[in-house]
Structures are given as C-alpha cells and as structure tokens.
Amino acid sequence: MQLGISGKRALVCASSKGLGRGCAEALAAEGVNLVMNARGSEALEDAADQIRKAHQVEVVTVAADITTEEGRARVLAACGTVDILVTNAGGPPPGNWTDWERDDFIAALDANMLTPIALMKALVPGMMERGWGRVVNITSQSVKAPIPVLGLSNSARAGLTGYVAGMSRQVAGKGVSINNLLPGIHDTDRAKSLDGGVAKAKSITVAEARSEREASIPAQRYGTAEEFGAACAFLCSQHAGFIIGQNVLMDGGATNSTI
Question: Residue 236 gets which letter from DSSP?
Fold first, then answer.
C-alpha cells in the first residue's frame, strides 16, 4: 500500500531509539523528511545517520529535552513547516501509590501530558491553515486499563487522552487527524527497565521476569519497534483522514476488554 506521504515533513520526538526510532524509520521508509529529537546527542546522531543512508531523506537533529520549555523552543525553531507530529517521551518511574508526592505528579504531567499539548498547540494551527496534518501521540495501554505500578503514567496519559478526545474533533474539519497509539510491552529499553524492577522485587532473573510477562500476553511475545512504527506510519498516511480521536492499542491482546 502506498501511504501517500512522500515529501511530507515530520517531527518525531524521543526518536533515537525504541518506539520513537521505529516511528521515524517507518516514516522515512515512506519518503518523509524528518526532524528527530532526543536528549542524548550521540545516539541521536547515530540514528539519524543510519536513517539518511537507508532511506535518502532529509534528517534534521535537535538534541534537547522536549519536556522543558527551552528544549521545545529549540526543537520548534528547527522544525519549519511540519505536516506530521509524533509526540513521545519516556514514562515516569514505577512505584506504589503511597510513594508519589505532588512534585512527582507535576513532573509526570509536564512530560506526558503538557508537553504533547504544547507541541500540538504550536504546530496544529499551521496544519489547519494548509488543510492537512497528522498527529500521533504515543501514550500507553494504561489509559485503557490501569497498571498499578505505573500510577504516574496512568494519571498523566489519561489526562492527555481526554484533551485529545475533545481537540481532535474540533480540528478534523480542517484536514487534521489526531490519534493516540497505545503501546503495551515492546522489546525496548523501557521493557528491560520494567523487567529489571520485577526481577528485583521477586528475586528472580530478568529472563524469568520477561518469560512471566510474555506468558501473560495473548500473542506470547513482546512487540517490536518495527511493527509499532508501521502502525504509526499508517495513522500518518493519506488513508487515515477519517480516523479521528481514536486510541489504538498495540499490546498483543494484553488488555482484556470488548471495546
């Protein structure tokens, strides 16, 4: 299937590795020029160089913390005209509901709710003026079914979901499609960190922790960044203009729900 987005320009946040990298790769494979952002410059430049060589697209890099005002300003200054926005930021640390204080919630909200909102407010008006745009927010399966140890993420990402539910329907008539992509466990550094926490808590090996988690997923495995990126690219395509304000699960069937 031709996605019809060759020559478009995308900002992909936190894209030096993991799910963000998967999204950047998939968009580049469709001929989309990229602005890639991550905090670490070495990993970012390495990822960008590989994508340029593999797909012959323009790639601009901005090493900055997208969750800060200064970082967002630097990224937005480098963007120019953007047709596609993929928001992404690392999740808050796991813990128990008794562990978190106000500052912990503020940090989670800044990273996983207010940063995507700020980026949409900055870039969606231009998309509306041009009559075409796509936004994909990488959130979490936890907005469909809460994960007890990820209470900070549950809270912040649910807030973003509510915002997008209203906003997406207000801009759809201008050719802008906004949706959320909800990952379950994928084979990324985040999964390794979570597995490490489980292993420590249960006094088992990381491999055993992973096997336990895989057994709980109907697909019996972790997802890959490549298949996640392919789903993102479709939501950014010319074919996704009638998909508005949806929360698309990519969790191998782990969320046990009818709708």
Answer: T
CA 98 to chain centre: 28
> Can you give the pLDDT at residue 162?
97
pTM above 0.85, yes or no: yes
84: β partners = 10, 134
Contact yes or no for 13/87 (Cβ under 8 A): yes
| Confidence tier at 189 by pLDDT (50, 70, 90) | confident
Read off the DSSP letter of residue 110. Answer: I
Neighbours of 6 (CB within 10 A): 11
Which residue, among 238, 243, 244, has the nearest Cα to 84 in the 3D structure? 238
* CA separation for the pair 208, 27 (Å, rounded): 35
**Which tokens hold the place of 116?**
């995507």
How many angstroms separate the CA atoms of 98 and 104, rounded?
12
Strand 33-38 with 59-63, pairing = parallel
Decide if pLDDT at 91 tops 90.
Answer: no
Ramachandran sector of residue 250 (left: φ over 0; alpha: ψ -120 to 50; beta: rest): beta
Residue-level pLDDT at 105: 96
Task: Give dist(CA 23, CA 227) in Å, integer.
Answer: 9
Q: How far is CA 258 from CA 129, 144, 218, 244, in A?
A: 38, 11, 15, 20
Q: Give the Cα separation of 52 and 60 in Å (integer).
A: 10
